[in-house]
């Protein structure tokens, strides 16, 4: 059965069982505990915890989706027969609608309906805190399962690895020795400190990788032989090693999807993940002396194969290809030099590797792979450590201590090359705080910062919001910002520890890692604060310094995320 048919059949099956079909959410999650979306349940967290009502939002307590997912933890494994960074996860979910019996029987019925026979299943064996999942064991027994294995917490308990979230015992379905379906019974809630509490309403969260399902359904030896990868691999010359072919096809596919969700290559967060995927591919392209058109054809093939299901790929096609070439262009200036540097270098440790990354842009994976025994002392941890030190240094840049790269200011968010630009980005920076506050006043408190980037010419602000803004809303936002400018409001900074800062109601950008002492910038008198945010600065002293602010563009950045560009007119 083709992957397309599998997708359709899955959604149809669960729709026929009363599930609302919900579109995939963005790879950039609206969830502070994860960098990228790693599972279908993420967009539904608040329905498990009872913070939101599924009947009000979906018309049902049960939903189904095919979720774009990404696991950075598997990046080093890609190249073998079954690991991927990006994958599609088929899932059915229930928030107090049904529980173990239905979930297991639906799973079996669906696999039967597409002609797949279950090999064996596993259930949670129990440990000192949580009992054996006898109920699931019995349900499987009655359903005719012949091989039911009991496994411990490592295998049959699902929950967030870090941070908070729903969790519970799982039952897993194996076909031909491969785990295809993970059915999680969310009974508990894991707190940030790792302790478990009972959830008021138990829920069901299932996840089945489309790639693995396609592999068993299409009777292939590995995921790369399925129709999801064949057309991509067909474009790559057979002279490349199998491992390289797999890495390239995984990485370019993942890159196309990240770009379609508005991620751009950078040295931070999701942008940094994307940069590594692309650059590793470019190194393989370079050393195999491939024609530059080959990868572009692959990107186009990926978009073509997926665009009917993922409309963002279609709508952002030109932007995706454009960003792809830009990153290639940027890297091509230093790639060959970087490889030469790698060849000349002895003893590559974390410090040295980071220097090579910083100077030549070679990603960690490539440095490790190409330096052989010379980098025995190099670990990902050591490299990341250096990276962190560097980021702290560039944060200090916000106070003007940063000298490198010809910029006098580079906080990641703000960039200025001289005093003149510094004054402009400072004004735009305060304007951006006013913009966020105004957006929340007009559109509601669900609006949250998803990213921002400020140059001397403009501010670019991304925020969570589900739809296009109306002309009236844009006008209102603009008027509120300019009202604050006209009001000549004072901008004040106060230093405090992070907890007090968050408690004070100051907004913060959840993707940023804040130090334990932070600065809080507020605009306006304490009685009538217009805006209050955790921020490294710099800002103007009084809003009158800003001048007239205009919104020049409002557009989609990713699903659920809007992007505004604004500037100051003289
Ligand atoms: N959340 C579980 C997983 O990721 C099931 O969807 O495997």
UniProtKB/TrEMBL annotation:
Question: Record's NCBIfam families?
Answer: PRK01584.1
Q: Which UniProt keywords apply?
A: Aminoacyl-tRNA synthetase, ATP-binding, Ligase, Nucleotide-binding, Protein biosynthesis, RNA-binding, tRNA-binding
Name any one Pfam family assigned in the record.
tRNA-synt_2c
- Quick one: a GO biological-process term for this protein? alanyl-tRNA aminoacylation
The record's section on SUPFAM superfamilies has:
Class II aaRS and biotin synthetases, Putative anticodon-binding domain of alanyl-tRNA synthetase (AlaRS), ThrRS/AlaRS common domain
Q: Name one GO cellular component term.
A: cytosol
Instruction: Tell me its family.
Output: Belongs to the class-II aminoacyl-tRNA synthetase family.
What is the species listed in this Swiss-Prot or TrEMBL entry?
Candidatus Giovannonibacteria bacterium GW2011_GWB1_45_9b
Taxon lineage: Bacteria, Candidatus Giovannoniibacteriota
Q: What is this protein called?
A: alanine--tRNA ligase
Which InterPro entries does this UniProt record tie to the protein?
Answer: aa-tRNA-synth_II/BPL/LPL (IPR045864), Ala-tRNA-lgiase_IIc (IPR002318), Ala-tRNA-ligase_IIc_anticod-bd (IPR018162), Ala-tRNA-synth_IIc_core (IPR018165), Ala-tRNA-synth_IIc_N (IPR018164), Ala-tRNA_ligase (IPR050058), Thr/Ala-tRNA-synth_IIc_edit (IPR018163), tRNA_SAD (IPR012947)
- List, alphabetically, the Gene3D superfamilies matched: 3.30.54.20, Bira Bifunctional Protein, Domain 2, Threonyl-trna Synthetase, Chain A, domain 2
Please tell me whether the keyword 4Fe-4S is annotated for this protein: no
Enzyme nomenclature, EC number? 6.1.1.7
Tell me the ranges covered by the Alanyl-transfer RNA synthetases family profile domain, including all copies: 1-564
Q: List, in alphabetical order, the Gene Ontology terms for molecular function in this entry.
A: alanine-tRNA ligase activity; aminoacyl-tRNA deacylase activity; ATP binding; tRNA binding
């Amino acid at each position: 059965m083709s992957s397309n048919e599998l997708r359709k059949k899955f959604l149809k099956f669960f729709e026929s069982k009363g599930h609302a079909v919900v579109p995939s959410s963005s790879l950039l999650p609206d969830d502070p505990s994860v960098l990228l979306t790693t599972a279908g349940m993420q967009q539904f967290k608040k329905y498990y915890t009872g913070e939101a009502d599924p009947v009000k939002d979906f018309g049902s307590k049960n939903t189904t989706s095919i979720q774009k997912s990404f696991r950075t933890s598997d990046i080093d494994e890609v190249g073998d027969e079954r690991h991927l960074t990006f994958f599609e996860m088929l899932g059915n979910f229930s928030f107090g609608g049904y529980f173990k019996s239905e979930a297991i029987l639906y799973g079996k019925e669906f696999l039967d309906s597409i002609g797949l026979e279950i090999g064996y299943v596993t259930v949670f064996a129990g440990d000192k805190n949580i009992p054996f999942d006898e109920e699931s064991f019995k349900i499987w027994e009655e359903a005719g399962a012949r091989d039911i294995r009991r496994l411990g917490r490592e295998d049959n308990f699902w929950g967030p690895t870090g941070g908070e979230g729903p969790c519970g015992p799982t039952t897993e379905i194996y076909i031909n020795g491969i785990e295809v379906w993970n059915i999680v019974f969310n009974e508990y809630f894991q707190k940030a400190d790792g302790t478990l509490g009972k959830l008021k309403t138990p829920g069901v969260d299932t996840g089945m990788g489309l790639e693995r399902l396609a592999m068993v359904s299409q009777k292939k030896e590995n995921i790369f032989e399925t129709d999801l990868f064949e057309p991509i691999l067909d474009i790559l010359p057979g002279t490349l090693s199998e491992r390289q072919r797999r890495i390239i096809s995984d990485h370019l596919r993942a890159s196309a999807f990240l770009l379609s969700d508005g991620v751009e290559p950078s040295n931070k967060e999701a942008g940094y993940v994307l940069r590594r995927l692309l650059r590793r591919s470019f190194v393989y392209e370079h050393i195999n002396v491939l024609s530059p058109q080959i990868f572009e054809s692959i990107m186009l093939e990926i978009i073509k194969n997926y665009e009917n299901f993922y409309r963002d790929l279609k709508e952002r096609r030109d932007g995706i290809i454009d960003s792809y070439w830009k990153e290639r262009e940027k890297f091509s200036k230093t790639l060959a030099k970087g490889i030469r540097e790698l060849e000349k270098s002895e003893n590559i440790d974390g410090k040295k590797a980071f220097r090579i990354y910083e100077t030549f842009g070679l990603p960690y994976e490539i440095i490790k792979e190409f330096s052989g025994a010379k980098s025995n002392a190099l670990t990902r941890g050591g490299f990341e450590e250096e990276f962190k030190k560097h980021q702290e240094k560039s944060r200090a840049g916000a106070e003007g201590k940063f000298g490198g790269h010809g910029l006098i200011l580079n906080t990641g968010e703000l960039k200025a090359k001289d005093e003149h630009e510094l004054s402009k980005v400072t004004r735009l920076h305060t304007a951006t705080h006013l913009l966020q506050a105004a957006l929340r006043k007009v559109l509601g408190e669900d609006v949250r910062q998803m990213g921002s980037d400020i140059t001397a010419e403009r501010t670019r602000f991304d925020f969570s919001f589900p739809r296009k803004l109306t002309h009236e809303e844009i006008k209102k936002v603009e008027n509120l910002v300019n009202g604050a400018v006209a009001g000549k409001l004072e901008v004040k900074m106060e230093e405090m520890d992070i907890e007090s800062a968050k408690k004070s109601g100051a907004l913060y950008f959840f993707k940023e890692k804040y130090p334990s002492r932070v600065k809080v910038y507020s605009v306006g008198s304490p009685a009538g604060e217009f805006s209050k945010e955790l921020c490294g600065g710099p800002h103007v002293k009084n809003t009158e310094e800003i001048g007239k602010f205009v919104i020049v563009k409002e557009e989609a950045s990713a699903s659920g995320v809007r992007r505004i560009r604004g500037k100051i007119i003289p």
